[in-house]
Amino acid sequence: MKPKVIVYSRVPDEVLTRIKKECDVTYYEKLTNDNYSDFMKELTEAEGVLGSGLKVDKQLLEKAKRLKVVSNITVGYDNLAIDELTARGVLATNTPTVLDDTVADTMMALILTTRRRVVELDQLVKNGEWKDSIAEEHFGLDVHHKKLGIIGMGRVGQTLAKRAYAGFDMEILYHNRSRNEWAEDTLQAKYCSLEELLEQSDVVCLLTPLTKETEGLMGNQQFELMKSSAVFINGSRGATVDEQALIHALEEGKIYAAGLDVYKEEPVPVDHPLLSMRNVVSLPHIGSATHETRHNMAQLAADNLLAALNGASPPTPINEKDLS
Ligand SMILES: NC(=O)C1=CN([C@@H]2O[C@H](COP(=O)(O)OP(=O)(O)OC[C@H]3O[C@@H](n4cnc5c(N)ncnc54)[C@H](OP(=O)(O)O)[C@@H]3O)[C@@H](O)[C@H]2O)C=CC1
Ligand SMILES: O=CC(=O)O
């Protein structure tokens, strides 16, 4: 008998067909209030789930007695209670590496749009406010030859650093808990304390995972250390930033602008104060959202799911080594 699997996010037809060849699939393009109770019923029999964004915690796992694998179609896995999964012998997998270039491109886009005021000036043209040659009040700030400080110099961080160093002649600073020798050797990246990085950088880009340690990592004290001409970019998770502190820093001119792909609450409410600020560029969590990359992520998630259900080692496991 084929193993029962739930795919709870939209995946390309080709990927779904591949999973269906080996599994008995229940497919929800997305979970909603209307289908959630059906999903929970299916979960009691499921051996595998595949999708993005589902909060997999103790409560949910208590209902999912037959579960063998949770295949996340994201690299970040702060939605998964890894200790609970491991304690139950459930394998968790994610989709690292295949999205690095696309997410780094998104971060570069936020850096350029915030410093060069691209969105604001686009609005000015479309509103018919371009009456004369643009004067100083609309000038932006350079990106090239400036200092880029990356908090979280991992796979995505170093892919961004490569672009900034080779394409924009930027000087790279970074802060991690451990050293990234590749970035130091190849990009002359300079390892800094968080405080040094914040004080010196013209662009601060946050790319850590969301963990107990990184929750609220950027607060009043941290924004206070930044240059008033610096921009802050968040590509990690919304909860790594105290949003009230960010609003305060922007209102008081303590920083120049912010480029955000992630928010504490997603979708971010339309009346959120950050959305009414002229110097905030806001994206709807689209770091990896290109056709090509989302396709590759879904393929990798399917590879992980099918390997785990076949008793093989999945390509990108999270907790495999902790399962006995
Ligand atoms: N906006 C989007 O669409 C996307 C968002 N992301 C987010 O980016 C995150 C990073 O992805 P990826 O680069 O693949 O992950 P990696 O694990 O490769 O990199 C994470 C980096 O963060 C550092 N880090 C972890 N904890 C801390 C800490 N407490 N203080 C300082 N640095 C820390 C790690 O270094 P060390 O262990 O030495 O501290 C590591 O270098 C994801 O977890 C996800 O949240 C990723 C893809 C798309
Ligand atoms: O936020 C996206 C991810 O892949 O993590």
TrEMBL record:
Domain D-isomer specific 2-hydroxyacid dehydrogenase NAD-binding: from-to ranges: 108-287
Highest taxon listed in the record's lineage: Bacteria
Single GO molecular function: NAD binding
Cellular compartments per GO CC: cytosol
Domain D-isomer specific 2-hydroxyacid dehydrogenase catalytic, residue spans: 5-319
UniProt cross-references to Gene3D superfamilies, sorted A to Z: NAD(P)-binding Rossmann-like Domain
UniProt-recorded name of the protein: Glyoxylate/hydroxypyruvate reductase B
InterPro entries the record matches: D-isomer_2-hydroxyacid_DH (IPR050223), D-isomer_2_OHA_DH_cat_dom (IPR006139), D-isomer_DH_CS1 (IPR029752), D-isomer_DH_NAD-bd (IPR006140), NAD(P)-bd_dom_sf (IPR036291)
Catalytic activity reported: glycolate + NADP(+) = glyoxylate + NADPH + H(+); (R)-glycerate + NADP(+) = 3-hydroxypyruvate + NADPH + H(+); (R)-glycerate + NAD(+) = 3-hydroxypyruvate + NADH + H(+)
Coiled coil (UniProt feature): none
Family, as annotated: Belongs to the D-isomer specific 2-hydroxyacid dehydrogenase family. GhrB subfamily.
Annotated keywords: Oxidoreductase
Enzyme Commission (EC) number: 1.1.1.79, 1.1.1.81
